[in-house]
Specification:
homodimer, DNA-binding
DNA sequence: TCAACTGTCCTAGTGTTGCATAACAGTAAA
DNA sequence: TTTACTGTTATGCAACACTAGGACAGTTGA
């Protein structure tokens, strides 16, 4: 599990880290129940303050992606989504709308957009299965 | 063209405004070539400073959605996308990936996700056509 | 119990962002 | 050229965000 952060990237370091963990979870590189690196070692490895790592983890925790057991560490959640169905729908639609609006302004048509979406779904699905099969 | 901003929304006012314009353009409420409200009147109407409006417009300009003609005003671009094809593809894929990853963490399956995407594509398309037909 | 690990909280320095006021500059029509 | 629009740029300042260091507290196993 190698993460990379870039101070000059414009985006806050703790968000870069949170994104990478989110993506790793979605593509199966991180499995449910698996422990995440603990604060101090990871902080040392990435040359960050432990609180910066903690902030990234806190971000993921409110999103229901990881959970923390005090004294033990952080773990990828087994049962996800602490949100109710309407809230989940709203969250996802907001994200989808942003992509749809972006497609409009980039003059990407409906069919090409749908093709891209399917391609990315496949991409994450495939990666996830590859990990599951022990590759 | 009525915009609404909320100081307590957590999101910066200028971004709220930019979003609304982006959405209005994507759903056809704003047509290519159409002028946007000029800074001072809109600022007065929304009880904001002119520079806050200007910042929203500047945001949209770098995204290639509107253009400014000095001394004349702001206009919705006719020819959009000042970006090259690879850049456009990267921008859009980033947005799509965010939605796909979000769907994964919200435990929304492939078919349901695709259905939602199509629904939103239809929604914007329909609105756009309704405006075009003079409704 | 003690040591070594885990995360948490409090506090602070630094830089950035968001919003504002004011003076400036281009355009158009009378 | 004058007037009344248009957007632009410079500056200030309060609030917030980001990162960090030190002290604290729960957990585990020797």
């Amino acid at each position: 599990m190698i993460f990379q952060v870039d101070f000059k990237a414009g985006k806050p370091v703790y968000l870069q880290l949170a994104d990478q963990i989110r993506y790793a979870a979605a593509s199966g590189k991180l499995r449910p129940g698996e422990p995440l690196p603990s604060l101090r070692p990871l902080a040392e490895e990435l040359r960050l303050n432990r609180n910066t790592i903690a902030k990234a983890y806190a971000e993921l925790e409110v999103q229901g992606i990881i959970e923390t057991i005090p004294g033990k560490g952080f773990f990828l959640k087994q049962k996800k989504s602490p949100f109710t169905e309407p809230v989940r729908q709203r969250l996802l639609l907001t994200e989808i709308d942003e992509a749809v609006v972006m497609a409009h302004h980039l003059q990407v048509g409906r069919e090409k957009f749908l093709a891209l979406v399917k391609e990315r779904l496949d991409y994450f699905e495939k990666k996830s299965n590859a990990v599951k099969d022990g590759e």
